[in-house]
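Reviewer has doubts. Consider these tokens.
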Amino acid sequence: MTKFRLRYAPSPTGFLHIGNTRTALMNYLFAKHYNGDFIVRIEDTDLERNVEGAIESQFENLNWLGINADESFLKPGEEKYGKYMQSQKFGRYEELAEKLISIKKAYRCFCTTEELEKDYEDQVAKGIVATKYSGKCARLSESEIGSNLKSNKDFSIRFLVPETTLNIKDFIKGEITFDSKELGDFVILKTNKIATYNFAVVVDDFDMGISHVLRGEEHISNTPRQILIYQAFGWETPQFGHMSLIVDSTGKKLSKRSGNALFFIEQYKNQGYLPEAMFNYISLLGWSPIGEKELLTKQELISMFDDKRFSKSPSTFDMTKMKWINSQYMKALSEEEYLEFTKKYINTEMFNTKDKSEDWLNQVLLLFKKELEFADQINNHLNIFFNEVDVTSETIEILKTIEEHESVIKEFETQISTLNEWEIENIKSLIKLVSENTGKKGKHLFMPIRIASSSSEHGPSLADVIYLLGKDKVLVNIAKVK
């Protein structure tokens, strides 16, 4: 059986985002499941739109996620596979485009930009929706071609589309039929000698022995053109599969303008998401394993991968679920792993950790281990421990709804003031004593104590919070609500 070789081929016109991460990840799982190769190839022929740092960002974030390439320009494979950056293959594309001319499968097009625009406008004026090239230069005589070349007239190279019906067996979408009459003769080499996407990608996939092309459904319209090029050269065609769109909560294609969903992988990395959690969640976008289990390791996903379990329907990027999955991975961290990871995200401009002992800081951070959805959220919880916090008017109003809260706070202050040994167990006993002395339990006991001690109505273990705030700070906070 032919070795499975799959590729992810980003254009460095932008940075790694959810959509192309899903493409890379699925190609990676597909290749690894069948003990094949995963290749990263850079499609950088659109020189004017290439973004500085985009290539580095792609590799850095793919590696962070654990999507490691077997081959790339950083780690080339066998020489027969050629170069892994399209900008290093201009000569190869030109040579093959000329070969197609020699076997009458392509021709030189001398039409100017103005002529092409006029032709387009004439077709639109006639009500033609699917505009296409008229084929004018395909009918030029040899003498006309020779004359144009002699006068150094600029030309592109167009593929001569044969009249045929293409029945494509897409391993996700099923059979898709195209009539080549709808395509028109398309450009494969521009006047500047740079290959177009559809031509370069076919040459690259052939050179690299790609067995399966797995990509987003927005590429379906490119597939017939690419298959015609394969057929013109007599090359074996890879198997094609097109994954469904990823949409946002409104049903529109996920983009950087989508509402509550972050778009770029770097954004998640900067907010303190775990790469293992992201790998897990993105693997479930448009694909599902057998069974109900959703929290899956990379090795489990590789083992369970099945190319027959792709969904044909759009997949919704659910930020709430993404956060939930990440929170489960954070809970599963050991205390040491959690502390090492979370400390990287503390905003040290807001919270001066240098003046605090490491043991105290660790205890504060561990209070929120089961609450964080991502590491950067720790900054939402630290203010009461590091800074003076005023009680909000909303919190005061909540306090007023609790009957006889004044007596609970007064008794709590009395007991705190006389507590000599500042230990968690002693604080727990103190709260129990306040309950006995006031006759209050549940919300009527704990809410006044929490608001009085921490200036907030929410938080983790009350005794732990009081202990870590310290006696002096708790007494200062009590004075704010008396």
Q: What stands out?
A: The mean pLDDT is 95. The two ends are 80 Å apart (CA to CA). The domain at 5-76+197-247 is CATH 3.40.50.620 (Rossmann fold). The first helix runs from residue 18 to 33.
